[in-house]
Amino acid sequence: MGSGDPYGMPISHALASGMGGIRTAGDLVARMQLHRKMRLPEAKAYVAEKLHIGTRELSDEVTMRELREELDIGVLTSMPKAARGLEAKARIASLLEVSIPSVVRLREKIGPG
Amino acid sequence: MTKVYTRMGDGHAVEMTVDEIRADILAGTEDAADRGKIPPLSEGERDYLLDLFTFEGKIVGVVPGDEVVLTDDGSVNALYGAQSSSGVGVPISRESAIRVYERAFAMDTMEVGHPDYSFKPVKPIIALELQAMESVLHTTIIPMYYGAMPNLALYARPDGPFGNPADLLPMGKIDEARSAQEEAAEASTRDMIYVGKRMAEVGADGFNFDTTASAGDAEFLATLNAVEELARTTDLSIEVGMAAEFVLGMHGKVTYDGVRLAGLYPHQQVKLVEKAGAHIFGPVVNTNTRRSTAWNVSRAVTFVKACSEAATIPVHANVGIGVGGVPMCETPPTSMVTRASVAMVTIGRVDGL
């Protein structure tokens, strides 16, 4: 995005055209761009296939809120026992079949046992 | 005749007729086409922009399902920082601010960045930055970048050890200015690689070069060389965001992959960034404060559309203060920010912002 106060810049863009982060599947689509250099249509199609939903539902807050809880990949609202932080990312790495560096590091730290 | 309440490029309100806005949209795209030697917007695309800028509602949005991925520069400095970073001075830690951006602001990605936000000052405090990155990676879900500016100017006297081209050039010392920039670029590349490799070691998802080429073509070369090395030796996802629409020829002769860097526009810049191995490119188109926002947005999306068409990697257009059609003012009006946002997605065909 770029410089600007939080209301004028990130919040305005998030409302106008943002995927929605962990409110939806924004972080998942972002991962495919970051880790596989996928253009947007390809990244959305890849994630939608893994989630067994349509691409429009990727940014549907209600669909994704329920699905994220069901898949236990981290939900927006703070919920006891739900996967958090690295726990959620480890599940996302498996779900999307992508290598997430911090998850790789975690697995190296805990060892094969 | 009905007047439309809109904004100038400096953010101030202005009333314009529909015909005046239509003429500005045409003039904006023709200016970009002329400078970049790229196609102007079609009549249908100009009509879309006219609808966008004559719509009476305060804010606008894309069609559901057409949303794009957001990456950010400047980190969360805007929440806890001071005026120079558009900061609103909330007394909150950097790590906490990142959690706010993830959980309250619906960001798709975020980054850790030092308040100084240049690579050179990060090097002596790298342990502090690694600690912040490690802490954030444990508690967040969204992809996490480390971000900073190449900022080659910091390597020139009096801030750095090398000659200052801004002093040497007015004295006619062209060769000395060029040598100074080449030496500074090599030092800058080494610093960026050092910080990048350390961030890769702790598991950062990505590395964001922000405002690349702010000091001109030598800085662009320094960044491309750093990108090449980091893409070759680490798992970092690399984003290169530019400083301006046009690479300034402060050196004038430096090349990358046989291409002279001075004078390149976004659709040409992206090809070299791809070649270096980056994963995401962030084009910049500067805002003209004396023209209307309609003129600026039309001009910006013309450049960005050409860039998106030329790219094979995702394109995340810069749409912060003073770029991408967004007005150049401290509190950018949400009416114009959302219009620039929608135009970039719908006509610029960006993969993200």
What does it look like?
The complex is a heterodimer of chains A (113) and B (353). By secondary structure, chain A is mainly α. Chain A has one domain. Chain A is built from 6 helices and no strands. Chain A has helices spanning 7-17, 26-36, 40-51, 61-71, 85-96, 101-110. The model of chain A has no long low-confidence stretch (mean pLDDT 96). Chain B has 353 residues and is α/β, with parallel strands linked by helices. Chain B has one domain (3-346): TIM Barrel (Alpha-Beta Barrel). Chain B is built from 12 helices and 9 strands. Chain B has a 5-stranded parallel beta sheet with strand order 3-4-5-6-9. In chain B, strand 7 and strand 8 (259-260) form a beta hairpin. Chain B is globular, with a radius of gyration of 20 Å. The interface between A and B is large, with 56 and 74 residues.
- So, CATH architecture of chain B? Alpha-Beta Barrel
CATH topology type of chain B: TIM Barrel
Q: Total number of β-strand segments of chain B?
A: 9
- Strands across the major sheet of chain B, in which order? 3-4-5-6-9
Low-confidence stretches of chain A: none
Q: Low-confidence stretches of chain B at least 5 residues in length (pLDDT < 50)? A: none
Summed over residues and divided by their number, the pLDDT of chain A gives a mean of 96
Helix content of chain B: 40-55%
Shape of chain B, please? Answer: globular
Number of helices in the DSSP assignment of chain B:
12
What can be said about the biggest beta sheet of chain B?
Answer: 5 strands, parallel
Number of distinct helices of chain A: 6
Strand coverage percent of chain B? 5-15%
Helix content of chain A: 55-70%
CATH class of chain B: Alpha Beta
Major sheet summary line of chain A: none
Beta percentage of chain A is under 5%
List the chains of the largest interface with their residue counts: A-B, 56 and 74 residues
Query: Mean of residue pLDDT of chain B?
Result: 97
Which overall shape of chain A is indicated by the principal axes computed on the Cα atoms? Answer: globular
